[in-house]
Structure formats: structure tokens, C-alpha cells
Amino acid sequence: MTADQYPHVLEPAPGIIACLGYNGRGVAMSTAMGGQIARRISSESAPFDLPIVPLKTIAFHRLWPFAVRAAIARSRSATRWGCNEHAGRSPAVVGGHAL
Ligand SMILES: Cc1cc2nc3c(=O)[nH]c(=O)nc-3n(C[C@H](O)[C@H](O)[C@H](O)COP(=O)(O)OP(=O)(O)OC[C@H]3O[C@@H](n4cnc5c(N)ncnc54)[C@H](O)[C@@H]3O)c2cc1C
Predict the structure, then answer these.
(1) How many Cα atoms within 13 Å fall on the side-chain side of residue 99?
(2) Which atom of ligand 1 is closest in space to residue 19's alpha carbon?
(3) Could you tell me the pTM of the whole model?
(4) Terminal CA-CA length for the chain
(5) 29-49: pLDDT as tens digits
(6) How many degrees, rounded to 5, is the angle at CA 80 between CA 92 and CA 76?
(7) pLDDT lower than 70: segments of the chain
(8) Best of 30, 31, 36, 37 to mutate for ligand 1, by most ligand atoms within 8 A of CB?
(9) What local confidence, expressed as pLDDT, does residue 86 receive?
(10) Do the Cβ atoms of 9 and 50 come closer than 8 Å?
(11) Which 3 state secondary structure label does DSSP give 51?
């Protein structure tokens, strides 16, 4: 997963290319990126469809288990006390995101 929800293309050292972070669409995306890497290997000037970006860590990423537990607890208590803003709505439209 990536914070911007796009796959990332990295070049950690000259001649080494890494494509990652397909955000749930890896089967199709990794196949497409494989084609791009092959093109780059055969011609160094061949452009990538995505920019090559520096490797960055996600701030506070080590805290994700606590954040997920807190969000679940918050949602459960909101449901228990009848103040869940999502109650009665189709999960498919909550927050505009497909769930
Ligand atoms: C549980 C699970 C469910 C998923 N479900 C979906 C889904 O429903 N839809 C979807 O689009 N994507 C899904 N994905 C993601 C998708 O499978 C991956 O994004 C995709 O396979 C990545 O392809 P890849 O070629 O980059 O890496 P991989 O498929 O991981 O291939 C890397 C290959 O390199 C080999 N390798 C590693 N190191 C070395 C080495 N040093 N020397 C030689 N060989 C090496 C590995 O053995 C492996 O065969 C899922 C992933 C997982 C784990």
C-alpha cells in the first residue's frame, strides 16, 4: 500500500528498478510494469508511464496496529450508543469509498 494510492517506481541504485505498492491491483499492474521495465532494459532512454520517485517511509507507520484498534473500538462504541454516522447506510457508499 502507498499513502498516495499510486504504485511507486524506485531506482535505489543505477541499474536497479523496483515497482511496488500496487494497492490491491498487483496482478494487472505488476504485469504492466514488467513491460515497462523490459522496455527500459532494452533502451535506457525509454520513459516510464509513472515517475521514478525516492523511497520514503510512512510517518508513524509502526503505530498502525494501535490506530486500527482505536478506529474499530470507536466505531463499535458509536454503534452501541446509536450515534454511528454510518448506521443505515449502504457500506458501499460510506465516505464515498467502496468498502
Ligand atoms: C494474499 C495476497 C492476495 C492478493 N490478492 C490480489 C488480488 O486479488 N488482486 C490483485 O491484483 N493483486 C493481489 N495481490 C497482489 C499481487 O499478488 C502482487 O502485487 C503481484 O503478484 C506482484 O507481482 P510481482 O511480480 O511484482 O512480485 P511477485 O509475484 O511477488 O514475484 C516475485 C518473484 O520473485 C521471486 N524472488 C524473490 N526474490 C528472489 C531472489 N532473490 N532470486 C530469485 N527470485 C526471487 C519470488 O519467489 C517471486 O516468484 C495479492 C497478494 C497477496 C499476498
Answers:
(1) 9
(2) 26
(3) 0.70
(4) 16
(5) 999 999 999 998 898 788 888
(6) 55
(7) 84-99
(8) 30
(9) 61
(10) yes
(11) coil
